[in-house]
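Fold it.
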Amino acid sequence: QVQLVESGGGSVQVGGSLRLSCAVSGRTFRSDTTGWFRRAPGKDREFVAYISNEGRDTYYAESVKGRFTVSGDNAENTVYLQMNSLKSEDTAVYYCGSANGLLSAFTATRSPFYDYWGQGTQVTVSS
């Protein structure tokens, strides 16, 4: 059974940093696509970043490009999202999702193409 467990959320001030973790079991993230999405209060779930192709391919939403970095640890089978220069608009519940195999850049940014999800971790950025 595939399970994803996020951790690392919390409350930080504007300009601060957090590192989210997504521990994957039942599947090897290296051979699949792992995406980060977020849902802010009153908004739809939106794409943040993904990693695929054994970590060689990464892609970011424009709103986080240059501030967030997605990476993976093969030994731990864990995907990370390093978030720097956080803004108040980054406040949301962050979810990691896993999709079997390699998704195209088009599909990897869309949540319906992921078949397993974690429970989410809250990130709150305040001024």
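The helical segments are 105-108.
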